[in-house]
Structures are given as C-alpha cells and as structure tokens.
Here is the input.
Amino acid sequence: MLELITALALWLFVLIPSFIIAGEVSKKKDDPFIIGVVTQASFFLLSVAVISLIGNLSEYGFRFNLMYVPKAFFVGLLLSAITAPIAYKLVQNYRPDFLPDSTFKIAILMLVLAPLGEETLYRGLIEGYLLCHTSFWVAIVFTAIIFGLVHILAFRDAPKGFRIFIVLDAFLMGLVAGYFRAISGSLILAYAFHSAANLVGMTGWLWLERN
Here is the structure.
C-alpha cells in the first residue's frame, strides 16, 4: 500500500506543477497548441528530473530496445481501429478545447508530444517506480487506472457517454502500453503504441469534422 501511495505522490508531484505552469501560460497566450506543448514538455522534463533523483534512467525505461516496436505500433493501430467506431457514435459533434485548429499542430501534439510527455510520466516514472517496488501486474494495472481517470479532466466538457468511453479506452490503452513497456524494459514501445493509437483517433476525428 505504501508503494501505491508513493506512486500517487510522484504522479501529483509532476502533474500539479505541469498544470500550474500551463495555466500561467494560458493567461498570457490562450493558444491550445502552445498550452499543449508546455504541458507535455513539463510532463517529460519533470518526470526525467524526478527519475534522476530516485533511480537511474535505464531502470525507468530509458533503454534502446527496438525488438517489439513494429508489433507495438501495429497493435496500437489495431486496437484504436476497433474502438474508434464506438467513439464516433458517442462524440455528438463535440470537439475538445485542447485541440489546435491546424492539422499540422494536431499531428505534432498527438503523434509526438503527447506520447513523449504522457508515457514518460505514466509508463516511465509511475510504472517504473512500481515495477521496482511491487509486482509486474500491479505496476501495469495501477498505472493504467490513473492514466484512465486523468482523462476525465481533459474531457470534462464532453458528452457523458463519450467521457465514460474515453476513460475506459484510456485504461485499456494504458494496460497494453504498460505491458509493452514492462516486457521490453523500454519506453520506446510505449511511445510507438501511443502514437499509433492516436494516429487512428486523429485521422477519424479530422474525417468527421470534414464530413
């Protein structure tokens, strides 16, 4: 139990300052892209700083391992393609306020920055800590739970059905990303999986908006 409480404390230690920094930036520049860049950069940099204080980067997933990357990318595409039709039925013309207007900026956020920032925090810092101090599945499942629940904040203005779906979908994606990270010891697989899943979601979202 103490290990889970510590993991939550580490999560909040990164999450709260990141949101405060993003909030201050939004007061000066109400641009979803800039706010997204700052948020994800804060996730990444603060997570790396905390990891450096409590362990070593290699132990927390900063290892070069490409063995399962194609498989992780393919599974990300496949799972997202399966769940996407459900999301499209529930979305009800809703558009998150954190999405920029530019397709290029959306792609940068969803395919590069969000995987780097979020996976470094969740599968790097949180799951990495739990893998060192608890069991394989406790680390994966607990991290996936908080990863799913935090999406309530991002989609707080979404239709209720879509919001519930997003939380469950994020939990599922968190489980798979966490599994790939755990078996490989590398965050590269989690980055690849997250980017692939977002690619399908982004493509579908843009298609819906144009039709």
Summary: The chain has one domain: 2-210.
